[in-house]
């Protein structure tokens, strides 16, 4: 049977099912004799956080650490809820606001697409330290790093001095939304962005806080984290390279250029880590 969107299931085990040759044979056990296909379930956790004591003037990056968190447009809250934010999504925190009625504290979140703000309870947001965002393998010259994405295999490979150092399954664009092939550079990077678009009602998407975005084209094709599906190994995107959130974070930290702490983005045309995308 099907379950409604945003239903929280208790995953108590993992098994292999399906047929030989299936790209994803992982199923989650959710009860006695009950299983659900992993591709349609996003694994989440519940981690509660202490409240930040101070927010820099430039803002600070945070990550949702509970299954989902509902926002409000004003403090005190009115009857019009803001966007629902999901586990693993990242957001810019601009300040701490206190509700004078009950003393509760809220983070003021900046929405990068609509240039507006909404408010979120503090406990469900982890604030990143500079160490958590520091570059990976900084001792390796940029020219000695490169990425290969093989569409037929739906896999991303990262190399240092032609030695494989990282591999992960991805979900690229299907027919009519094909991921471009060729040579690219990770010239434009953001730790978070509100992505939206779609050609018609059936393909529209609106995704606040897409994490760890490493863009490779001027048209918005990016390697990024994905909190709305878990179906890697099969084309599933609107042309981007979808990755599990922690895999995309690794790529974001490992590739060049580095986004300075406190900055919303870096844009350096002609610079970055080489990316080769090929069919096979």
The fraction of residues assigned to DSSP E strands is 35-45%
Shape label: globular
Number of strands: 20
Mean pLDDT: 94
> Which blocks of ≥5 consecutive residues have pLDDT under 50?
none
| Largest sheet entry | 5 strands, antiparallel
Structural class determined from secondary elements:
mainly beta
Describe the structure in brief.
This protein is mainly beta. It is built from one helix and 20 strands.
Annotation keywords:
single chain, 280 residues, mainly beta, five-stranded antiparallel beta sheet, 20 strands
Write the layout of secondary structure elements.
Elements: E1 13-16, E2 26-31, E3 34-37, E4 60-64, E5 68-72, E6 81-86, E7 90-98, E8 105-111, E9 116-121, E10 125-127, E11 145-150, E12 155-160, E13 163-169, E14 182-185, E15 188-197, E16 205-215, E17 222-225, E18 241-243, H1 245-254, E19 266-267, E20 274-278
Parallel strand pairs: 11-20, 17-18
Antiparallel strand pairs: 1-2, 2-3, 4-7, 4-10, 5-6, 7-8, 8-9, 11-12, 12-13, 14-20, 15-16, 15-19, 16-17
Structure description:
- With 280 residues, this protein is mostly beta strands.
- Helices cover 4% and strands 40% of the residues.
- It has one helix and 20 strands.
- The strands form five sheets. The chain has a five-stranded antiparallel beta sheet with strand order 9-8-7-4-10, with no helix packed on it. The protein has a five-stranded mixed beta sheet with strand order 13-12-11-20-14, with no helix packed on it. A five-stranded mixed beta sheet has the order 18-17-16-15-19.
- It is globular.
- The two termini are 37 Å apart.
């Amino acid at each position: 049977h099907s379950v409604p969107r945003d239903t929280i299931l208790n995953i108590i085990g993992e098994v292999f099912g399906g047929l030989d040759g299936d790209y994803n044979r992982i199923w989650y056990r959710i009860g006695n004799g009950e299983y659900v296909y992993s591709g349609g379930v996003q694994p989440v956790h519940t981690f509660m956080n202490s409240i930040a004591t101070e927010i820099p003037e430039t803002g600070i990056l945070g990550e949702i650490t509970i299954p989902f968190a509902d926002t409000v447009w004003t403090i005190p809250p009115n009857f019009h809820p803001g966007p629902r934010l999901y586990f693993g999504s990242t957001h810019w925190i601009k300040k701490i606001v206190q509700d004078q009625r009950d003393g509760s504290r809220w983070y003021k979140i900046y929405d990068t697409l609509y240039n507006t703000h909404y408010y979120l309870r503090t406990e469900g947001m982890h604030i990143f330290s500079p160490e958590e965002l520091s570059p990976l393998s900084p001792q390796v010259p940029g020219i000695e790093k490169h990425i290969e994405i093989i569409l037929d295999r739906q896999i991303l490979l990262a190399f240092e001095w032609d030695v494989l150092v990282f591999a992960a399954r991805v979900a690229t664009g299907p027919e009519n939304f094909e991921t471009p092939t060729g040579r690219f550079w990770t010239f434009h990077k953001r730790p978070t962005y509100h992505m939206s678009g779609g050609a018609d009602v059936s393909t529209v998407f609106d995704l606040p806080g897409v994490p760890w975005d490493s863009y490779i084209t001027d048209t918005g094709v990016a390697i990024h984290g994905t909190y709305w599906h878990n179906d890697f190994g099969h084309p599933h995107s609107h042309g981007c390279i979808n990755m599990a959130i922690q895999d995309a974070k690794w790529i974001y930290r490992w590739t060049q250029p580095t986004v300075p702490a406190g900055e919303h983005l870096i844009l350096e045309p002609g610079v970055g880590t080489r990316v080769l995308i090929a069919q096979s």
